[in-house]
């Protein structure tokens, strides 16, 4: 109730009913009536009470007592927080964009295909292999094809060419 609030505010300021009545140009009985909820102050008198007690008008009808200076500090704090959030949102989106770009970039596989000319026992072979795991050998007999395919099947593409050359060199052949 407003009466209890007025008593609390007056006592917080260390004022008597007489001093409040004097400051507001009303009788002590008027202050007593307000504080006992037998009468209500007018809006103009509420404004004067607000100034006298250094509180906002909301305090007179609200259950919590705020100091006007604290309210202003809270408003400033809220404005600062809002500004920080507004500044952080673009930074967060930039960071998320960079992360998404890097994830997408690492998930893109580059496809490469390599051809080699190799010679063995007076035969010329064109060997092809790619990053997709495909292997081809033009004019290879089935046995040679399977042997070479098994030899390079589980290797990364960067090692396949060396392994093929080693095979041909061990068998008295060569690769260009």
Task: Give your account of this protein's structure.
It is a single chain. By secondary structure, this protein is α+β, with helices and mostly antiparallel strands. It has helices spanning 2-13, 17-24, 28-35, 43-53, 57-61, 68-107, 142-152, 157-170; strands at residues 113-120, 123-130, 135-138, 174-175. Strands 3-2-1-4 form a four-stranded antiparallel β-sheet, covered by helices on one side. Strand 1 and strand 2 form a beta hairpin.
Mean pLDDT: 86
User: Helix share of residues?
Assistant: 55-70%
Question: At the first level of CATH, what is the class of the largest domain?
Answer: Mainly Alpha
Taking all Cα atoms into account, the compactness measure Rg is: 45 Å
Question: What is the number of helical segments per DSSP (H or I, 4+ residues)?
Answer: 8
* Helix-strand pattern: HHHHHHEEEHHE
In short:
The chain has 176 residues and is α+β, with helices and mostly antiparallel strands. It has helices spanning 2-13, 17-24, 28-35, 43-53, 57-61, 68-107, 142-152, 157-170, and strands at 113-120, 123-130, 135-138, 174-175.
